[in-house]
């Protein structure tokens, strides 16, 4: 049993349950259902590089560059998938509200 992986599943489930009222169920299914952990692990070297080179940080803050590089709620895996799931959960939990505090 990989306790580190179970801890990550637990953390994701607790945070999503607190934020949206519904967990993503990674701990129950014993799987990274939305490939969030995999994509975060793969992207980590890029995060380190970008944060250590100030010029790159300025470049990715340009709106059209950011739209090309950053995840969206339409993505099928990873952070974008998590954004889409959270957006759906929040939308359906407040169907009569005109404003949402979260939009992806």
In short:
It is built from six helices and no strands. With 104 residues, the protein is mainly α. It has one domain.
Provide tags for this entry.
mainly alpha; globular; 104 residues
Description:
Helix 3 packs across helix 4 and helix 3 (36-52) packs across helix 6 (78-93). It is globular and about 40 Å long. The protein is mainly α and 104 residues long. The chain starts with a helix and ends in an 11-residue tail after the last helix. It has helices spanning 3-20, 26-29, 36-52, 54-60, 63-69, 78-93. It has 6 helices and no strands. It has one domain.
| CA radius of gyration | 16 Å
Instruction: Assign an overall shape.
Output: globular
What number is the mean pLDDT? 81
Largest sheet: none
* Number of H/I helices: 6
In terms of structural class, how would the helical and strand content be classed? mainly alpha
Please report the total strand number as a whole number: 0
């Amino acid at each position: 049993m990989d306790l580190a992986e179970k801890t990550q599943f637990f953390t994701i489930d607790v945070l999503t349950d607190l934020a949206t009222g519904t967990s993503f169920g990674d701990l129950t299914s014993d799987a990274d259902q939305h490939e969030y952990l995999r994509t975060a692990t793969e992207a980590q070297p890029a995060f380190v590089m970008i944060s250590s080179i100030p010029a790159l940080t300025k470049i990715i803050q340009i709106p059209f560059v950011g739209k090309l590089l950053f995840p969206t709620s339409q993505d099928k895996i990873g952070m974008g998938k998590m954004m889409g799931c959270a957006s759906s959960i929040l939308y359906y939990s407040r169907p009569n509200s005109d404003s949402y505090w979260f939009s992806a």
